[in-house]
Design brief:
By secondary structure, this protein is of the alpha+beta class. The protein is 41% helix and 27% strand. The longest helix is centred in the middle third of the chain and has 49 residues. The radius of gyration is 35 Å and the shape is rod-shaped.
């Protein structure tokens, strides 16, 4: 085995960027002067161009290539010729794995952006109702020594309400704060309201699909599992226009 044989056997490893840093520098200097190796390197790069190498190569841990080579070189000479391609395959697997990780991270970022965009749109929708309100009602509420209230911003143009519930403690265990519309024919169940003393609840509500006009609203404490069409718990606020 002469000195040039090492360059021949490590062409694939050079293409796959799996040589040690000092070995890669020596090989790069060699291909600048050896047309045979330079031509083979260009050919391998063309043949491997279709593979998913769309991420930056990551250098193996120090000594990785040398340990693998030492283990394999104990085998018969025929096996030794396969070493460069085995190293190239290992490098490609590493690149594919990094590509999958990059795609997973990209999916997570896209999901976060979509969630932020949804929250921003909901906030803009709420602010639009607050700005265009034709009537604003405020109802004070006291519960468990806490003093808060409920504000209703009525937009007669869009037939929507902006509702803010603030200053209340968390609902008792197993219960929720329940918002109701009051109509000429009775109460219409709306949404549960999640609120505590440190964080008010902002709601943007469309009028319920009932023929009778909406006359007001109420806030009650209801069992979390209840789906009754009529209030069952204590009433905290009641207002009519």
């Amino acid at each position: 085995m002469n000195a040039h044989d090492w360059y021949v056997e490590n062409r694939a490893a050079f293409v796959a960027r799996s040589l040690e840093d000092d070995e890669e520098r020596v090989y790069r200097q060699h291909v600048q002067h050896c047309e045979e190796c330079a031509g083979e390197v260009r050919r391998m790069e063309r043949e491997l161009a279709w593979l998913p190498m769309g991420v930056l190569p990551v250098a193996p841990a120090p000594g990785f290539v040398r340990r693998v080579s030492a283990a394999v070189l104990d085998r018969p000479a025929g096996w030794r010729k396969r070493v460069p391609w085995l190293l190239a395959a290992a490098a490609l697997v590493l690149a594919v794995g990094l590509g999958a990780r990059s795609r997973a991270e990209g999916s997570r970022v896209r999901a976060l952006l979509a969630d932020s965009e949804t929250r921003m749109m909901a906030l803009e929708d709420t602010l639009s109702v607050l700005r265009s309100a034709h009537q604003v009602l405020q109802i004070p509420i006291s519960m468990e020594g806490k003093h808060g209230g409920m504000l209703i911003f009525q937009d007669t143009g869009s037939h929507r309400w902006g509702v803010i519930v603030h200053g209340l403690p968390p609902a008792p265990t197993g219960n929720v704060y329940q918002f109701w519309f009051i109509t000429e024919t009775g109460m219409v169940r709306s949404v549960a309201v999640n609120v505590d003393t440190s964080r008010p609840a902002f709601l943007t509500l469309s009028m319920p699909p009932v023929p009778a006009p909406v006359m007001g609203a109420a806030l009650t404490v209801e069992p979390a599992i209840s789906r009754s069409s009529e209030p069952q718990g204590p009433q905290l606020a009641h207002v009519t226009f």
